[in-house]
UniProtKB/TrEMBL annotation:
Keywords: 4Fe-4S, DNA damage, DNA repair, Glycosidase, Hydrolase, Iron, Iron-sulfur, Metal-binding. The keyword Iron-sulfur applies. The keyword Nucleus does not apply. PANTHER family: ADENINE DNA GLYCOSYLASE. GO terms for molecular function: 4 iron, 4 sulfur cluster binding; 8-oxo-7,8-dihydroguanine DNA N-glycosylase activity; adenine/guanine mispair binding; metal ion binding; oxidized purine DNA binding; purine-specific mismatch base pair DNA N-glycosylase activity. It comes from the Bacteria. Its EC number is 3.2.2.31. Binds 1 [4Fe-4S] cluster. Its cofactor is [4Fe-4S] cluster. It comes from Pseudoxanthomonas indica. This is Adenine DNA glycosylase.
Amino acid sequence: MTTTLVDSFAAQLLDWFDHAGRHDLPWLHPRTPYRVWLSEIMLQQTQVKTVIPYFARFLQAFPTLPDLAAASLDDVLAQWSGLGYYARARNLHATARACVERHGGDLPRDLDALIALPGIGRSTAGAILSQAWGDRFPILDGNVKRVLARYHGIAGWPGLPAVEKQMWSLAGAHLPEARMADYTQAQMDLGATLCTRSDPACMLCPVQSGCVALRDGRVDELPTSKPGKALPERTALVLLAANAAGQVLLQRRPPSSIWASLWSLPEAADHDSARAWFERHLAGEYDRAEALVEVPHVFSHYKLRMHPLRWRDLQARAAVNDNADLRWVSAAELPQLGLPAPIRRMLQSL
DNA sequence: AAGTCGGGGGC
DNA sequence: GCCCCAGACTT
């Protein structure tokens, strides 16, 4: 897997990295296993600029891996709120606890042991081992896929298993004998700053002399983009029930599917089920609802049109007080709760 | 091999 | 609007 390909790719990349790489990223100072792991999880499908403020706040709340393990899932989700892909937060928490129980409070320095932990796949495991310890393992994220597709002139969407398999092989073949931490960072810096998706700066590229796509004039068509598909649309009624104190009734979402375990507004597919839910939990007239303007929200795989219904000065029925998944929340409490981003915006705009 | 899982940025 | 982003996991 890590057979050495006799070329200058890694050497040229490292030379470039020394003077042109991003040496100021917060997770590099210091570059500890915990900070590398946390940054890698946050950076999954998420851009650096988005991650930086979350990374700082998260570390302040949970300075060490044992701190994270000792925290409640709710507190972790609150720190994660707005970052998306909330399974990452649940997996992060579960992995912290597993490390305390099985690995002495540290991340294991072993590829298979890392991959066995929730939320860590082959690429993230390679990134952790190479960056935290300098161990010789490849990564294959969006940056590396784009660089390899162009450098080797590989056609086909990189999400296809056959293409991905070929890229893993090439990524392993390019590994240098030393400086693995810098090499891993250098690949991502190259993809993020020069070998960008649109308008790449090929004339500044340290590996332009060996790039097949540049030689053949195919830079703009590689990597092959994902085959498109029309997004399905769904509509939902969201219930915005306020009491006399101005508190809003929130409901914890189910532990699986979208926005799992987050606090959100009660949701119903249609007016019949909305009315039934309302009458079971609240004292008041459903038909006095005020229909607010539609709130559209786009996920990766469907589009959701939310239709908020608002009531004021409602009272709860007894069932609400006995339900651990329902609670009245004041505006001041919102920052401490894990809410989906569009729901948080909706509540803050009131 | 395809679907699920967020939110934001770039064009 | 569409695609992508330091992907992993389930079916």
